[in-house]
Amino acid sequence: MSYYFPKDFLWGSACSAYQIEGAWNEGGKGMSCHDHYARLPEYAHYYEMGRPDSCSDFYHHYREDIDIMAEHGLKTFRLSFAWPRICPNGPDDVNQEAIDYYNDMLNYLLEKNIVPFMDLYHWDLPQWVLERGGATNYEFVEWFEKYARVCYAAFGDKVKYWSTVNEPNFSIFSGYYAVNGDGAGSFPPFEQDRTKAFTACHIMNLAHMRAVKAYREMGFGGKIGAVIDLFPMYPYSLSDERDIYAADRRFDFYAGKWLGPMLLGKYPEIFDDAYAQYMPENFQQEIADAYEEMDFIGDNYYGPGYARYTDATPEKFELCPDPEAGANGSWQEFVGMKVYPEGLYDILNLIHKKYHPKEIIVTENGVAFRRDEANPAVPTEIDDTRRIKYMRAHIMMLSRAIESGIPVKGYYTWAIEDTYEHGLGCNYDFGLIAINYDTMERTPRSSFKWYSEFIKANT
Ligand code: BGC
Question: Cα of 219 to ligand 1 centre, how many Å?
Fold first, then answer.
């Protein structure tokens, strides 16, 4: 069948600096929060010693990897700049070696006709930022703007797609509060403090707006947005209105704390009742004053969530299991994520109807398979027919979304190559390119070949 994708659709694949670059202490790079915590014995269980330091060593192998992308006709590659590489020791410290490195990498992408999409911050907060309070400190807004301006000035002529932040639910909020329930955060600084969590959320929103404003002021004429993990929150029971109410509130908590400010200039109502006590004073006004419209929203979609009503907390929701678990086929859970392509259509439709972004880009979507525990350096499933099935099913939902008038402009698989996963190490393979961590040999998987043919047929 035909899929009817626009000719200029962004067919891509993504990754982040921290998850593939390696070279953790080379090229003048400073410490990221993970470099720091991975070395503390009490946090070692979040990390897999050694691996995040080197990962797939993209830092040294980028030409080889970009060659493989080009051979497969990839149109665009999404990556992040490593903030601690660019500003190793403080807001005014700019590392020229990092600027040169990224310029070489970007030039090589452009030489191969691959459009770069770059994130400013994808999880690797510089340790100096964290030591000064991270995003709980209002000065974070200035540090982030300075760093953003350095990047725009250095790379603005080459990069025309920018995202300020990737999944701040994890990289900001969950440093102080587990996003999927109460309890200690699962991200540096691994604290448990709701006031800090909501304050950091607010300050990240302000920093995002400053970075968008700065980009416009510098006049490069590209597009800038933000990337959030967005997925539908389904009610446990469709016939119980209280569950529907609860699921909406859960969505407003999880996604609305970014979507509301970034797209509508206002936090959702649940912030006025359940969360106002944890927010800085005048939080609604501060957002309204700082509001800066962005060009697109990026959606990282992996699978849906479920919630139901409870009276036990002011939030009035609690997470619950999928009520139909077991009833929808056999190919379900990898890394704890339910595979549910229809959820991609539902979330794109919801964002479009409720938040009216100018454009939506699916900035991540993918599936992982576990490596053999006895042989973890060796990649799994080179002939990954399961991944092809996954990709095809999700891409079909994109086509349906576009035909129903939702402005979806691009799709990035996660990930271009096998990655380091926070909390899971290098044990789950997400890549279109398989990596052998002993030899650093790269092998394109069957899914890349399939994607390559699909891209060719649809551009
Ligand atoms: C993140 C990635 C991560 C992926 C798979 C997203 O949450 O942006 O950094 O590797 O999901 O878990």
Answer: 31
Active site residues: 167, 364
Ligand 1 nearest-atom number relative to CA 421: 10
Which phi and psi (to 5°) does residue 221 adopt?
75, 10
Ligand 1 centroid from CA 302, angstroms: 9
- pLDDT tens by residue, 170-226: 999 999 998 776 677 789 999 999 999 999 999 999 999 999 999 999 999 999 999
Ligand 1 centroid–CA 239 distance in Å is 33
Residue 394 CA, ligand 1 centroid: distance in Å:
17
pLDDT tens-digit series, residues 356-386: 999 999 999 999 998 998 999 999 999 999 9
Tokens at residue 310, please?
A: 């409870």
CA distance 316 to 309: 6
Nearest ligand 1 atom to the CA of 335 is 12
Using the structure block, give the residue that is written with the tokens 């250095």: 154
**Test site for ligand 1: of 414, 420, 421, 428, most ligand atoms within 8 A of the Cβ:** 414
For ligand 1, residues with CB inside 6 Å are 16, 19, 166-167, 229, 300, 364, 414, 419, 421
